[in-house]
Write a structure and sequence with these properties.
Blueprint: H1 8-11, H2 14-19, H3 27-36, H4 47-54, E1 63-72, E2 75-84, E3 89-97, E4 104-112, E5 116-121, E6 127-130, H5 133-142, H6 145-168, E7 174-177, E8 180-187, E9 190-195, E10 200-205, E11 210-217, E12 237-238, H7 247-255, H8 260-269
Parallel strand pairs: 6-12
Antiparallel strand pairs: 1-2, 1-11, 2-3, 3-4, 4-5, 5-6, 7-8, 8-9, 9-10, 10-11
Helix pairs in contact: 3-6, 4-5, 5-7, 6-7
């Protein structure tokens, strides 16, 4: 049963470059960076504004769309991924197998918004899990305005620090696709080239198939309901929560320059779809 691991972002050592190692303390470095990252922009006053700063896109982009081709032995397909500042994401894919005399087709979608993550093969209710970013944003909005400033100052310093770390890491194993530099990583027999600032893969090579980006649109026109769950998601199998979070405590940690738990929340929101081959039944859709 061949598939692209659903939690690929958590398997790649990339998480340390994107968000800092979960549980690590960066108070000294972040504190120094915070001195140079004074609050120059207005403090977010809405959930959307907070999340856009917590999960930004490079060069201030509001949204990015990437189109992919999928190829393999007797297999072809396409995938389109849309993401926004704030962590929303939509992956839609279609695979066609031409092995033998019978043509088999599989299609599916993953939708990530601030509250939920839903993934399903076409015609099935799929699986639904919670996304914790909305609850963190609500906890932020419960703070008195003076208490929000140190949180935002620290988040901005965090992203500045991550950018400096990526730059200091040098070239590494890198290549360029469609004008974007991506980090190459090998996991077992899988090769991945990741656009670190966005959490998007630009190329994946595995034993079953290869996925490669063919087009990047930095100003896509998104459908108004692109990140709204469809009615069939109401029948989805709900995943058990992996752990409970104290959102008020996470905000306190952020203000103190500690980013371990917020890293876990952000990485957890960057869901990468599990692409099932046409002859492979989808899980949790009984």
């Amino acid at each position: 049963m061949s598939q692209l691991p659903r939690s690929l972002a958590c398997l790649v050592p990339l998480a340390a470059l994107l968000l800092g190692c979960p549980g690590s303390e960066r108070k000294t470095e972040a504190g120094s960076a915070a001195e140079h990252a004074k609050v120059l922009a207005p403090i977010p006053a809405t959930e959307a504004e907070f999340l856009a700063e917590l999960v930004p896109l490079p060069e201030g982009a509001e949204a990015i769309e990437v189109e992919y081709t999928i190829t393999g032995p007797a297999l072809t397909g396409t995938m389109t991924t849309q993401i926004t500042a704030g962590g929303q994401r939509r992956d839609q894919w279609e695979l066609v197998s031409t092995l033998g005399d019978t043509q088999l087709r599989a299609a599916g979608v993953t939708i990530v918004n601030a509250r939920q993550i839903w993934t399903a093969n076409e015609g099935h209710p799929g699986e639904l899990s919670d996304n914790h970013l909305a609850e963190l944003a609500r906890a932020y909005l419960r703070l008195d305005p003076p208490a929000r400033a140190p949180v935002m100052e620290s988040i901005r310093a965090w992203h500045q620090l991550l950018a400096e770390q990526r730059k200091a890491a040098g070239g590494g194993d890198r290549t360029e696709l469609l004008g974007v530099s991506c980090l190459e990583t090998r996991i077992a027999a899988q090769n991945v080239c990741m656009w670190e600032e966005t959490g998007l893969l630009l190329r994946y090579e595995g034993s079953a198939f290869t996925i490669e980006a063919t087009k990047i649109d930095r100003q896509p026109k998104l459908a108004p309901d692109a990140f709204t769950l469809p009615p069939e998601a109401a029948g989805a199998t709900r995943a058990e929560p992996q752990r409970d979070y104290d959102y008020d405590e996470i905000l306190t940690e952020i203000a103190a320059g500690s980013y371990g738990n917020v890293s876990l929340l952000v990485v957890g929101s960057k869901s990468i779809p599990s692409l099932r081959l046409p002859d492979t039944p989808a899980p949790h859709d009984d």
